[in-house]
Amino acid sequence: MGKSDHVTTALLLHPGLRNTRYAFYVTKQIHRKFNTKKEGTGVEVWRWCGYCEGGEAGVERLGTWNETTPGIPQHPLLFRDRPENYNRHKFRLFEKELFPYISSERLSDEPGALIRHRDAIGTRVIQAMSSSLNFTYEVREPIDDHWGVELEGGNWTGIVKHLQREEADICLDLTVTPQRYQVIQYTGGYIQQSVVILSSKPRPLPEYLSLIRPFEC
After folding, report:
1. Backbone dihedral region of 57: left (phi > 0), alpha (psi from -120 to 50 degrees) or beta?
2. I need a labelling partner for 125 at 20 to 30 A (CA). Which of 8, 136, 182, 203 fits?
3. Could you tell me the pTM of the whole model?
4. Weakest mean pLDDT among 48-57, 78-87, 100-109
5. 203/191 Cα distance (integer angstroms)
6. Are 164 and 100 in a shared domain?
7. Is the pLDDT of residue 133 over 70?
8. Is 137 a member of any domain?
9. Residue 115: per-residue pLDDT
10. Where residue 35 falls among pLDDT bands split at 50, 70, 90?
11. Residue 59: inside a domain, yes or no?
12. Strand pairing report for 170-171 and 89-94
């Protein structure tokens, strides 16, 4: 049971909860509101929010329940599935050149340096998302220039490695495989790439074979 806002904030912002989808804390009433007779006569519910403090993690008080509260208030933010506003949070985006889906320009020859987007399908998708959800991003290439290959011991190379180590927040156009699906979370697909094998049509057999294969020449 917390005794102050400081305790509540420290608890919900603990590093162990950084990837938690829902985190709530119920404590004795800290603030004197809603015509309570005295402090501590009710309970408060606090919620961890990933991007509410200027794009960074913070906490917010959802409500207070006490003897004067009729029933249990239904707060619309209690189980919100996803943020509607990231408050200009800067995400770390990793990608590899794959035109026309991904196209970029290197700003430095250093491995893992920042790159600049060029017009491509993936660029338009991430720009539309950032505009709608109010976030920013910086773009880099994987240091080893790999998409992601599984190694022994559960480790990975490439973009998957950066996601696994929490060095990246988002990547673009990474093919779904059963192995990758075990270690990273995919969004719904927006591009389907069909691959086919082409070969030339069979040519007629030479005329000298007409005596032994008359119906195929």
Report:
1. beta
2. 182
3. 0.73
4. 78-87
5. 37
6. yes
7. yes
8. yes
9. 96
10. very low
11. yes
12. parallel
pLDDT at residue number 61 = 82
Strands, E assignment, the chain: 24-28, 43-53, 56-65, 89-94, 104-106, 114-117, 135-140, 170-171
- For residues 93 and 161, state if they share a domain: yes
**208 occurs within a structural domain:** no
Residues near 64 by beta carbon (within 8 Å), at least 6 away in sequence: 29, 31, 33, 34, 36, 42, 43, 44, 45
Query: What is the pLDDT averaged over residues 181-196?
Result: 83
Place of tokens 């709608």: 132
- Full domain range(s) for residue 27: 5-65
CA quadruple 7, 12, 17, 18: dihedral positive or negative? negative
d(CA 82, CA 25): 19
- How many separate domains does the chain show? 2
Q: For residues 189-207, b (16+ Cβ closer than 10 Å) or e, as one string?
A: eeeeeeeeeeeeeeeeeee
Q: What is the average pLDDT value for the chain, to the nearest integer? A: 83
